[in-house]
Amino acid sequence: MLWDLYMYPGEDERFEKEASFFRILGNVAGLKIFYRAAEEIKSGREIIKKLGLTPRKYYRYFKRLRDLGVIAPNEGGGSRYSLTDKGRLLHNLVFNELSPVLSASPKDLEFLKNIGEESRLTLITDYADLVETMISLIERSRFQIFLATRYLDLSVTQSLIHAVERGVELRTVTSKDVRLLEFMKLVMGFIRRLRSDLLKLYGKMDNYRIGNVPLSFIVVDREVAIFELPSEEFKMAFLSRNKVVVEGFYESFLELWNASSKFPSPLLEG
Hints:
With 270 residues, this protein is α+β, with helices and mostly antiparallel strands.
């Protein structure tokens, strides 16, 4: 309640600092300068022209960012400025975590809302970061990997092969839209040594099924889950170690697994 703001000494000062920052973000000029500050800023006519701002607007918001401790002069002085440690944290929060949520569709937001307010999520907005994170989890897996996917990635496939070689239980459900045989034949046409490895992974169809996969997700050791927003192209993904979230995806995979079918054709003859 608004009344609560008056019950704690010092709250006004705290909120004033936050309000000052949000006032900058609430203006296109301030947002442009803050975004550009991820690289070194050389204050002057060139940057003003590049940002399409008037000198008055530029210097007004530049000064506010500096006064808030978000940007500071580079070592050695001069007219070059960069983000401070605080500035880098806020920059990542605004442009890597907040922006994707603001641009998400109502359908995406409804999906996120259903996850639950208590879940602590790590946002992944870059596909290369997603692959790297998945590989890292797969390489550290101890006993089980459940993977539901709408596409295939060679790097992730290789890490899954190594996990199977270590004795990790692997179950995968791949979307019907994925042409697995064409993918495998293409890969093995370039890298012959992968033939035996891929057959080791997919040759026993007990661990592989095809079904209607609504979104890609992976559950590792029943301890951590990564899942993407349900969309045609990659937008963002989330990593969670929350027990409720992980268990939810674990149970969802089992339901998906039971509703899916085994691979209908012999795998790569000859």
